[in-house]
Amino acid sequence: MGVVNVTPDSFSDGGMWFDEAVAIEHGLDLVRQGADIVDVGGESTRPGAARVSLEEELVRVVPVIRALSSEGIAVSVDTMRAEVARAAVEAGAQLVNDVSGGLADPEMPRVVAATGVRYVVMHWRNHSHDMYARAVYADVVTEVREELSKRVDLVLAEGVTEEQIVLDPGLGFAKNAEHNWAVLAGLPQLAELGFPLLVGASRKRFLGRLLADPDGTPRPFSRSDDATLAVTALAAQAGAWCVRVHEVGPNADAVRVAAAWKRAGAGT
């Protein structure tokens, strides 16, 4: 899954694809690099980010989704708003990637159920301004699993089918670095819920902190791509359905390597 942030303030590439024509071309380029899905978002969810209006989010994402979908590209919309999800699907989106798992907008599961598209339900505890205050766990893997399971039950009750659901453990959302590493190591336990897993580690802050300079200065987001590749390969090996990344080409290669490794292991 390649990322197209149609925003001026996303954490790693804010403003680079904010122009509509540039965003469309970037989406096309991600497919040329090997993306199976292009994820278009019009609202930053970085820590501390302010929400944009519904109208602004629609203006940002709908034309880009329509243009990419018209080229036969599988497009997802990264949104927490049911109205944006509905408009995006009407414009051709085949997947709704809701980082709130339906908590930010109670109408979202019903809209997704009516459209029949795939639905990414992410582990989430609150909006960006408050999410780190919620990063408190006794056992992060067990609690993320339990909370995702509850979200699944609730969206199923609203009419979403099991076949539509994809789960995302929400790396970086109400989680510190230690939590993120534990969640990654616990992917097999999360997979036991029985749904495809989407992993979004690309360029996230915990990678920059792992690779910090001797003086403690975190590595810049744009220089965390090699670490992202390592996570991609390990996540694929652990059975992830999809990885959400900024640099598609090298990550697609990493997935191929992990797949070859798994095939070889299965044959021994």
Keywords:
268 residues; alpha/beta; 6-stranded parallel beta sheet; 10 helices
In short:
This protein is of the alpha/beta class.
How much of the polypeptide forms β-strand, as a percent range? 5-15%
SSE topology string:
EHEHEHEHEHEHHEHHEH
Helix content: 40-55%
Arithmetic mean of pLDDT: 91
Strand order of the largest sheet: 1-2-3-4-5-6
Quaternary state of this entry equals single chain
Runs in which pLDDT lies below 50 for 5 or more consecutive residues are none
Terminal CA distance: 31 Å
Please describe what this structure looks like.
With 268 residues, the protein is of the alpha/beta class. Helix content is 44%, strand content 11%. It has helices spanning 20-33, 54-69, 82-90, 108-115, 140-157, 177-185, 187-191, 205-210, 225-237, 248-266, and strands spanning 2-5, 38-41, 75-78, 95-98, 118-122, 165-168, 198-199, 242-243. The strands form two sheets. The protein has a six-stranded parallel beta sheet. A two-stranded parallel ribbon has the order 7-8. Helix 5 (140-157) links the parallel strand 5 and strand 6. Helix 3 (82-90) packs parallel to helix 4 and helix 9 packs parallel to helix 10 (248-266). The longest helix is centred in the last third of the chain and has 19 residues, at 248-266. It starts with a strand and ends with a helix. The mean pLDDT is 91.
